[in-house]
Amino acid sequence: MNKRTCDILIHNGQIFSMDPDRRIYCPGAVAISGSRIVGVGTDAELQQNFDAREMIDASGAIVHPGFIDAHNHIVHTSCRGIFGSYHDAESLPVNFADWKASVTDADEAAATTMAGIEMLRNGFTMFIEPGSLFSTEAAAEAVERVGLRALFSPLYLWDRGESFEAIPTLASPSLMARATIDHDRCIKELDAELHRNRNADALVRGYIFVYGEGTASPELLRTAHACARENDVPLHIHAGYLPEGADLYRTLTGKRHLVHLQELGFLDENTVVVHASALDADEETAVHETGCKIVWCPIAFFSLGITFNITFKMAERYRRGVCVSLGTDGAR
Ligand SMILES: [Zn+2]
User: N or C: which end of the chain has fewer CB within 10 A?
Assistant: First the structure.
């Protein structure tokens, strides 16, 4: 039988394939050619089928697909430790949002490189950036240079400002000047990152992140949802970050955020709600009924000091079969 040639054969590992049958091969092997995995199976089977240019002995170690950080504002890597907790915000000499507005393309490239190397060293091979980059090009170059994968969205898709009263540290006049609260801008930029998806081997791909927390009009939500479905990409949104934000949303609209999103047809199996900490029972039902997914950011949850008046719902969600991924929300 003719053997296939591959570049690298990792052998003598415990291979956690994470395929639909969750097969584990021990001792197992992975064959790689270029940037693609071309074979996964038992050691015996792959050594019989492949001639490798380079062999790597895993010495019995676990080999598994990379972790994905499902929510990472990547530029925060370059201000780690500076802004402390949400409750210290008033006492700081610099507003967090003003700092965000001041970053340069070089800052974003450096932060992405630094975060990327750190991620690789800790087993992460992909992250999802929630539309907070001014220069996705500079960051994409950094991602490709490091050798990670990433999903990028257009910059801050928001067209309503009333909700920032509840989350003042996330917005400032300088940030609004650079990322305008403007419906037409958002509509024009909705598909700005999707051109990347034409290349099936692209390390950086596009999706749509609507900033949320009450900063999107129903028209923006509907158009973003239609654009995401038309282009077969996921749609993410912040919701339920803080109880104050959830309460203000109800005051402004008369409805709970996720119940409203369900009514607007925004929630479905390809919609991902990020944070989902301050949800009430009706919103939990909306999650269950629509099959939307959740990204939960544990460090954000515990550092916000909201655990005294919010019930921790992850166990209940798990029992109800809700799909929950984890995110870091960025370096702190
Ligand atoms: Zn976020």
Answer: N
Question: Which helix (H) or strand (E) is 158 found in, with range?
Answer: none
Ligand 1 centroid from CA 73, angstroms? 6
Euclidean distance between CA atoms 218 and 214, whole angstroms: 10
pLDDT one digit per residue (tens) for the chain, 332 residues: 689 999 999 999 999 999 999 999 999 999 999 989 999 999 999 999 999 999 999 999 999 999 999 999 999 998 887 776 655 666 677 888 899 999 999 999 999 999 999 999 999 999 999 999 999 999 999 999 999 999 999 999 999 988 877 777 778 899 999 999 999 999 999 999 999 999 988 999 999 999 999 999 999 999 999 999 999 999 999 999 988 888 899 999 999 999 999 999 999 999 999 999 999 999 999 999 999 999 999 988 887 777 777 877 888 898 999 999 999 998 87
Distance 84 CA to ligand 1 centre (A): 16
Per-residue burial over 210-231, b if 16 or more Cβ lie within 10 Å, else e, is bbbbbbbeeebbebbbebbeee
Q: Compute the distance from residue 157 Cα to the ligand 1 centre, in Å.
A: 12
What is the residue extent of each domain of the chain? 4-63, 67-326
